Amino acid sequence: MDRMKITTRKDRFIPTKKNLSRRARQYSFLLFLFSSLSISVPAYAADCTAPAGPEGEILYNSDYRVPQVCINGLWVAMGAINPAAGGAGCTTPAAPEGQILYNQDNHVLQYCDGDDWIQAVGASMGGCTPDPACPNVGDVCSGDASGGGNPKFAGCITYYDANSADVGVTKAIYVTQANQSTASQWKNATGTDDISTDSTEDGKINSANRGGVLSDFPAFELCENLTDGGYTDWYLPARTELDLLWRNAATITGFTTSGYWSSTEYDTSNAWYQLFSVGSQNGNNKTFNFGVRCVRRD
Predict the structure, then answer these.
(1) Which strand ranges, in their side-by-side order, compose the sheet holding 58-61?
(2) Model pTM?
(3) Among residues 247, 174, 235, which one has the least CA distance to residue 199?
(4) Digit-coded pLDDT (tens) for 136-154
């Protein structure tokens, strides 16, 4: 990600398909945020990692050709994700990729994704809309009529994996109230490329692309066969989803073991896990025993 360059200038230009106005001037992205975000800061606000940045910082993600704002520990996209864009920059007015302009005629912010001037989209505080019963991270959400086993709101994730059904969307993530296991194998054997196209972000992709028989994958089986809170669409979280659980672990509670499996494969012998004592992620043998905590999203 590249940090935004903010300057001041005015340009007069003729309308084309690639812009919305004849006049544009550079404007501070922060003014846009103050006008579009709530001024109240939720209790679960957090700084971002990968890359590190404080709550409210704006970066340009040159991999996905979109500006992002740090909200609740997540880099939330402020426009359309278009990894195929990028290149020579924009024209009328001329500007390099990542430049931000304020369109005075149409009263919108635009950014250059490397090809076109794209309208920036405001991001709400928190990045997603959770179940009204659980507006804050760690709150117990609505579920089955008995009230038992209802999930907790774990936070928000914006998906960038092009193979995800939710690419470009910020989703509310829910987690079970307790571990499904404190000592489960990822798989009962090693030596096979078990996931044809795996994802570091989306555990649903990993479950869908996993080969073999489900019973050979104990950690996956615990989630995919789970009925909790009246829901049956649970899955083993990918690395990014698991990291969200770690960052909000103190608020979510119930993490009673040091390491948890993700659904992301490392290589034929290993899979990614996260050490919750320090937050580090690494690969370990698929037959090793780690904890399992399942997630879901609407």
Answers:
(1) 2-3, 58-61, 66-71, 74-77
(2) 0.64
(3) 235
(4) 899 999 765 444 568 999 9
